[in-house]
Structure formats: structure tokens, C-alpha cells
Amino acid sequence: MGLTARVVIALEPMITMGDWHIVTADDGWSVKTTDNSLWAHFEHTIVITEEEPMVVTRRPLEKL
User: Fold this and answer.
1) Residues 6+ positions from 5 with CB-CB distance below 8 Å
2) Does 1 have pLDDT greater than 70?
3) Tens digits of per-residue pLDDT, 4-42?
4) Closest CA to 55 of 46, 64, 63
5) How would you classify the pairing of strands 44-47 and 39-41?
6) Most Cβ neighbours (<10 Å): which of 10, 12, 28, 45?
């Protein structure tokens, strides 16, 4: 199964300074690493179109 036009996907990488294992907080939304190491998370939302993918969360001067 490939990506087809009008599909929207989110890529959400997480980079950690330590262990990659995470736990979810009691609020059901927040996460932290199991070893309490520093981590960063970001997201890009991408719309698949007939011509080429469109990154809708792209900043004006951001290069891809």
C-alpha cells in the first residue's frame, strides 16, 4: 500500500540524550524518558498531493 493523494501524515521523531524508552504521564498525553534524560520532539504534517508532498508545518525559510 503506497501513499495516495489527499492522505495526511504526521512525522514525529524524538531525539534523546540517553535511553529511548518512554513512559506516559498520568495526564495521558505527556511523556518522559525512563531514565529522565533530556529529549526533544518535533512534528511535521505532510499532505500527499497529486504532484508532490506538501509540508504544511514548514517555516517560511526552512529548507527541506
Assistant:
1) 48, 49, 50
2) no
3) 999 999 999 999 999 999 999 999 999 999 999 999 988
4) 46
5) unpaired
6) 45
